Amino acid sequence: MCPPEYFAVGYAINPWMAPGTPVDVELAVKQWTVLRDTLLGLGHTVHVLPPGPELPDMVYAANGAFSVHGVVYGARFRYPQRSAEADRHRAFYLEQGWRYVAPTVINEGEGDFAYLPGRLGGLVLAGHGFRTDPAAHAEAQSVLGRPVLSLHLSDPRFYHLDVALAALDDHTVAYFPGAFTAPTRQILRNAFPDAVIADEDDALAFGLNLISDGRHAVLNSEATGLAAKLRAAGYEPVPVELGELKKGGGSVRCCIAELRSA
Ligand code: ARG
To answer: Highest taxon of the source (predicted)?
Structure first.
């Protein structure tokens, strides 16, 4: 995770961002700290990346890389405003002794990649349509040695996979069908008949931008409908308030790069 000490909305690279929107950095840091403490309280380890003053979106740490079984597939950002973030993440992984593979094509890390260890020996779900180049799906498959299922996003409000779909445990996902093309909706229906289906209100409240450890699903507090559905499906919803970070087009999941070690 990376604290939002320099968070700002000075440019627009997704439909949620309105340049000039006033941001309460103190509140953003406070909300982010509650999220970090929530993860710590659930027993997880959190590493903190130092933020860069010239990188207002660096709080969305999910976009910096995607790791599976100790191998890190690095990110390459679509927009120049964020491109310098990739090297900061790379430095972290190298320092920690991970095997890091630099990408040759555009991909925005965990923003567009999710992982289900219990499917097909480890299945990567990969989004495209707005940010990640579909060529990165093939590259991720060869770098990570795991099959990749390509999912086509079609609604610009859901410009990353992680705002439209979430892994809930080793096998199952939650998603909002309206974020995807018709062929992809068919693929998702076939692959995940037991998925938790979110409605548009919960998706727009960034409810799907959640992180689950298989039991607890930490999600944006405004997604109350989805929280109820998750509870009914046997998960424990853990709501957190991240209102400030919505101004940049992100929530819980965007703030976290999950570290999947060997
Ligand atoms: N302002 C950031 C961008 O547009 C938000 C990134 C959100 N991150 C995510 N994993 N969905 O790139």
So the answer is: Bacteria
Ligand 1 centroid from CA 94, angstroms: 24
Q: Does 46 map to a domain?
A: yes
Mean pLDDT, the chain, whole residue set: 98
Q: Does residue 75's CB lie within 6 angstroms of at least one atom of ligand 1?
A: no
Q: Atom 7 (ligand 1): residue with closest C-alpha?
A: 250
Report whether residue 163 contacts ligand 1, using a CB cutoff of 6 Å.
Answer: yes
Q: Rounded mean pLDDT of 81-101?
A: 98
| 16 domain residue, yes or no | no
Q: pLDDT tens, 12-32?
A: 999 999 999 999 999 999 999
| Structural domains in the chain (count) | 1
- The pLDDT assigned to 262 comes to 83
- Taking the model in full, what pTM does it have? 0.98
249 lines ligand 1 (CB under 6 A): yes
Compute the distance between CA of residue 6 and CA of residue 175 in angstroms, rounded to an integer.
Answer: 31
Domain holding 179, by residue range, is: 25-255
| Contact residues for 153 (Cβ-Cβ < 8 A; gap 6+) | 127, 128, 129, 130, 159, 160, 161, 164, 179, 180, 181, 184
